[in-house]
Design brief:
Number of strands: 0
Shape: elongated
Order of helices and strands: HHHHHH
Distance between the termini: 69 Å
Strand content: under 5%
Largest sheet: none
Structural class: mainly alpha
Number of helices: 6
Amino acid sequence: MTRRTPRRRQRGQVLILLFLGTLLVGGSAASLGTVFSDARIKQIRASLKALVSEEPRRKSLDGTLDRLHAESRQAASIHGDQSKKLLELMQRHDAEPADFDALLAKADALTLESRRRLLDLRFELRQQLSSGEWQALFRQPGAGN
């Protein structure tokens, strides 16, 4: 008689660990949220101050940046909570595949919502700027400036 059950279980655990690594490191809302980190928002504000001289317009831009920053932080928090729940579930030996499916479906939905809000705010910011201001603000390093 061959013992295939432990091997199958190990394969499943390896797949879960690979998926967990992907969830924690890449392919998440958190990665989009890092685009609007504390340091990056501060840098954008300083650049806007130099680019936009009209105070009312700059205040409107600051409001959009405030919302972007808040959403970015919330996305990172949600991602952290979901990752923690996934780790806790992995530590439970009685967890069923359906438990993981439910948790991952919820994480996917939260990620999608957060990405949509962040992208909506990004486009709102872009609409508030001229093409030249936008390019000056988000110039790619080494992109033939």
